[in-house]
Specification:
The complex is a heterodimer of chains A (288) and B (394). Chain A has 288 residues and is mostly helical. Chain A is built from twelve helices and two strands; from the N terminus they run ααααββαααααααα. In chain B, strands 7, 8, 9, 10, 11, 12, 13, 14 and 15 form a nine-stranded mixed sheet that branches. In chain B, strands 2-3-1-4-5-6 form a six-stranded mixed sheet, sandwiched between helices. Classes of the chains: A mainly alpha (288), B alpha/beta (394).
Chain lengths: 288, 394
């Protein structure tokens, strides 16, 4: 019984890690930059396709494809930011929603045109598959891997945003662009780099997520709810908020499906409603 | 209201008749309206069906009974009953199609049924698998299958092979519930026990909790019905990762989960999986070889591997060609339906008959196992249940 519970907890944390990985990029573009970027999934999909194409067509090992996925999505993000996104920073959220959902539909059409509508094959290297036995528990190797990646990623991002000069510039530019510019910060460049960072993280998440989530052209729409869930419950402006939110949602989702399968799929949404009622600005919201 | 509507329909009909001059006899083409999803999440449905139709036309020539056959495709982009209905009306009144075909999704087929009843245009269902569709209009026939038609023989096969305790896992939507209902019914009638059942949300990306529950319940087998693609892959990965197979639990399912079109993409997790289905691309027969050859010749590489929908598209064209031959090219709705009833032929999937009473297809259901054949994953048939009728209409 207790073994079951620990198993559920582990699966929940692993699932939460996955939610965080696919949503962390959005917590940068939406959370930090305040841009309602529904096209987050499109950047994740770029990363996903880069991984799959490198693995299946060029035979590159899985782990080596991940940095490429990050860079590719970041470059696409940078180009789109300079060409399109930057024009809408000052627009109303509704305009941003309409604009970014347009990007989503275009990305779906482009992916269908290039890669076809079907699922892409993903097979992980054998050292990331199967289970390991730890203290009488069977733990999935890929799940452990996801948890470790999330821990490293969180530390790195936290450091980047809180401790570095670039991090302070980002926060200053977001809070008051005029004042930041007056202090000599090149706001345009900071925004462009931050957006590229968010897109790159999306791409990385897309690459890491394909084993569980699969990859087809509808990816950006199919998982949009999950991205938004994590960032809205977590609150904008931090990395910690979405992380805690993702882990809570992950654990409750798995526990709900295990102990109460009849209502299992519903738990995660009920929890979102409750959390948002109690914390309207998200768990760690900076702006109430 | 009802009166007004029938008046409107009459008026539309009259208008259609006026526009229809010169009469259909003068036409030198047989036009087939193909309504299906060619983009969006169900884009594979339409493209597979069309690829199968093209394969038939490549093999048998693009004219029959002295008339050229022309396909006119319309993209519903997904389940969109109103759109499908409008396309059907336009195709019939404006393009003067003599047949409607395609229909990957049940809601779209259902919406078009009243239109073909009114216009007396034969409608051939190339995929949509809800049992009741053919009862909605006397002008509908189906060349694909129904979900109960597959679930019933699978339950019988399981019982015959010593499986007495099953856990069911189905996606929580119409077809999933149909599959669960039929499987449970047949399995219980045959003396089996269902020791647990779960319905999972349609978008569920993670099956860890579900597979753990199944493992804890220790059934002899788990019956699964999930949409092909990501859902099926996720479930199987979870099934393998948790070692359910090593725990002695068999995985049985209807064959759409190991769809030939996506099987290669699903990869090794599918190996050893037992499914019941009416068509496998690995079916050994001269008819299937001819189909595969024509499919490859008629379509570019992007079309991917053919699956049951492509085979159904191929059979759709067979039915149209046979009707055209019998009626010498002069297509009339009632005569066409009379011709289709009881029609027998050897399809790429094996021997099939259009049931004269239900206009649904009677066919052999095969039990298959996923294996690697010449380096490629394939659904290899190893047992069969011949002449299965749709149990939904018994």
């Amino acid at each position: 019984m207790i073994g079951n519970f620990i198993g559920v907890l582990f699966d929940g944390l692993a699932y939460g890690s996955l939610l965080f990985i696919i949503a962390v990029g959005l917590s940068v573009t939406l959370g930090l930059m305040n841009f309602v970027n529904l096209a987050h999934g499109a950047f994740a999909m770029v990363g996903g396709y880069v991984c799959v194409m490198l693995m299946t067509r060029a035979g590159v090992p899985f782990l080596a494809t991940l940095p490429v996925a990050f860079v590719a999505a970041a470059v696409v993000g940078l180009v789109l930011e300079r060409a399109l996104y930057q024009r809408l920073y000052k627009s109303s959220p509704l305009d941003q929603v309409l604009f970014s959902i347009g990007i989503v539909f275009m990305s779906i059409a482009i992916a269908t045109y290039w890669f076809g509508a079907s699922q892409q094959p993903v097979s992980l290297p054998s050292y990331l598959r199967g289970q390991v036995h730890v203290l009488g528990l069977d733990l999935g190797v890929y799940r452990l891997f996801l948890i470790v990646v999330v821990a490293l990623l969180t530390l790195a991002l936290q450091y980047l945003l809180d401790r570095t000069r670039f991090g302070s510039q980002v926060r200053a530019s977001v809070d008051n662009a005029t004042a930041a510019a007056g202090l000599g910060i090149n706001v345009n460049r900071v925004f462009a780099l931050t957006f590229a960072l968010g897109s790159g993280l999306a791409g990385l998440g897309g690459g890491l997520g394909i084993d569980v989530l699969g990859l087809d052209p509808t990816f950006p729409l199919k998982y949009m709810v999950y991205f938004l869930l994590v960032v809205s419950v977590g609150g904008s402006g931090t990395i910690k908020g979405p992380l805690i939110a993702a882990l809570i949602l992950g654990v409750f989702d798995v526990a709900g499906k295990y102990y109460l399968p009849q209502v299992g799929g519903f738990v995660i949404y009920a929890l979102m409603v409750v959390l948002l009622l109690v914390f309207p600005a998200g768990l760690y919201g900076r702006r109430a | 209201m009802k009166h007004a509507r029938s008046l409107l329909v009459t008026a539309l009909g009259a208008l259609a008749a006026l526009v229809a001059i010169p009469p259909a006899y003068g036409q030198n083409t047989i036009k087939v309206g193909v309504i299906a999803a060619f983009s969006g999440p169900f884009a594979d449905y339409g493209s597979q069906i069309e690829a199968g139709m093209k394969a038939y036309m490549k093999e048998h020539g693009d004219s029959v009974a002295g008339k050229k056959v022309e396909l006119i495709t319309r993209d519903t982009k997904g389940p969109a009953p109103e759109v499908a209905k409008r396309f059907a009306q336009e195709l019939i009144t404006r393009d003067k199609v003599q047949f409607l075909a395609g229909f990957g999704l049940t809601p779209n087929a259902m919406a078009v049924a009243p239109v073909v009843s009114e216009a007396k245009v034969p409608m051939i269902i190339s995929n949509a698998a809800t049992s009741s569709i053919t009862t909605k209009s006397p002008y509908i026939t189906r060349v694909s299958m129904t979900i109960p038609q597959i679930a019933e023989p699978l339950a019988q096969w399981a019982l015959k092979n010593g499986i007495k305790q099953v856990y069911t896992v189905v996606a929580d939507y119409g077809p999933g519930i149909d599959a669960e209902t039929q499987f449970t019914k047949t399995f219980k009638e045959g003396g089996g026990t269902i020791i647990g059942s779960v319905r999972t949300p349609l978008q569920s990306p993670d099956f860890s909790a579900t597979t753990q529950r199944v493992k804890d319940a220790k059934p002899q087998a788990v019956f699964v019905f999930l949409p092909a693609g990501q859902q099926g892959i996720s479930f199987m990965k979870s099934f393998n990762e948790r070692g359910l197979g090593e725990a002695g639990i068999k995985l049985i399912a209807t064959g759409d989960i190991t769809d030939d079109h996506v099987l290669e993409a699903m990869g090794d997790p599918t190996l050893g999986m037992i499914t019941a289905f009416h068509y496998s691309a690995a079916h050994k027969s001269p008819e299937n070889e001819a189909f595969l050859k024509a499919y490859a010749a008629a379509n570019d590489a992007k079309a991917g591997a053919p699956n049951f929908m492509a085979a159904a598209g191929y059979d759709t064209m067979h039915v149209i060609y046979e009707i055209a031959k019998k009626l010498d090219g002069n297509i009339d709705g009632d005569k066409a339906m009379a011709a289709v009833k009881g029609m027998k032929w050897t399809s790429p999937r094996g021997p099939v008959t259009i049931d004269p009473e239900t206009r649904d297809i009677d066919q052999t259901v095969y039990i298959r196992k996923v294996e690697r054949v010449n380096g490629k994953l394939a659904n290899v048939e190893f047992d069969k249940i011949p002449d299965v009728k749709d149990p939904g209409k018994k």
